[in-house]
Design a protein that fits this description.
The chain has 2 helices and 7 strands. It is of the alpha+beta class. The protein has one domain. The strands form 2 sheets. The protein has a 5-stranded mixed β-sheet with strand order 4-3-7-6-5. Strands 1-2 form a two-stranded antiparallel sheet.
Length: about 100
């Protein structure tokens, strides 16, 4: 079973039918617009990339960064956390526009 151990010791796992359909994995999701806020642990496909769009509770977000963290245990590196940094889609597009203006100036 694909699972995610939280700092508090809780175990979050994706539903079996979700995993069978497209191998979903739990990700810790953070909206990085200041101030950053946690959107919880969500199950998504394992092949997510920056710039892709995801919907969480009816709100559209664009992935800004995907982070996979590993921890050394008993001489082996094991996955310890998968994290998505997201921005609302409107904010993501605005940032792209402002970056483009800055580069042109």
């Amino acid at each position: 079973m694909a699972g995610f151990a939280c700092a508090q010791g809780l175990q979050i796992s994706c539903r079996k039918k979700d995993r069978e359909r497209d191998s979903r994995h739990p990700y810790k999701v953070i909206e990085i617009t200041p101030p950053p806020r946690s959107l919880g642990v969500r199950c998504f496909p394992s092949n997510l990339q920056c710039g892709e769009s995801v919907t969480i509770e009816g709100q559209a977000y664009t992935i800004s960064a995907v982070t996979h963290r590993y921890q050394l245990r008993k001489g082996k590196y094991e996955p310890s956390e998968k994290r998505l940094d997201v921005l609302s889609t409107g904010r993501y597009i605005l940032n792209l526009y402002l970056d483009n203006l800055y580069e042109q100036s």
